[in-house]
Design brief:
mainly alpha; 5 helices; single chain
């Protein structure tokens, strides 16, 4: 799986639950909310004022280990 800004957060968490702390550390604490699980990385970053490109890079690095 390669994560992009268009990847759905729920899909990331279902396939790579180890990424949860990365979302939590940038303030995305509503990961179990049905709404947030259906958001793309870019949509969630817009809501939380986070750089989507930086988050995508961090997530892809984490899942490549």
């Amino acid at each position: 799986m390669v994560i992009t800004k268009n990847t759905i957060i729920g899909d990331i968490l279902d396939n790579h639950p180890e990424t949860e702390p990365i979302f939590l550390e940038i303030g995305m604490h509503c990961l179990t909310c049905p709404c947030s699980r259906g958001e793309t990385v870019e949509e969630a970053c817009d809501v939380h004022g986070t750089d989507a490109d930086a988050l995508v890079e961090k997530l892809n690095k984490a899942i490549s280990k």
